[in-house]
Write a structure and sequence with these properties.
There is one protein chain. With about 60 residues, this protein is an alpha+beta fold. The protein has one domain. Helix content is about 35%, strand content about 30%. The chain has 3 helices and 2 strands. The chain has a two-stranded antiparallel ribbon. The longest helix has 8 residues. The radius of gyration is 15 Å and the shape is elongated.
């Protein structure tokens, strides 16, 4: 990944029933199992959906000026 920034749009607590095949695909995974293999840490008692976007270096400079 090149230089730039990640800007968080939202952080939302969700439950296991909210992790659907559609959400997994929208998040760049093949399916729910693929997502859980990567995203699950520890006991997995708290689940958060973090939406974010990438800001390229050129756009970041323009925003600060």
């Amino acid at each position: 990944m090149e230089e730039g920034e990640i800007e968080v749009d939202s952080i939302e607590p969700i439950g296991f029933p909210d992790i659907t095949p559609g959400l997994a695909r929208q998040s760049g995974f093949l399916g729910v199992l693929d997502l859980l293999k990567i995203a699950k840490h520890g006991k997995g008692e708290n689940i958060y959906l973090v939406r974010f976007h990438y800001i390229p270096p050129e756009r970041r400079r323009k925003r600060r000026n």
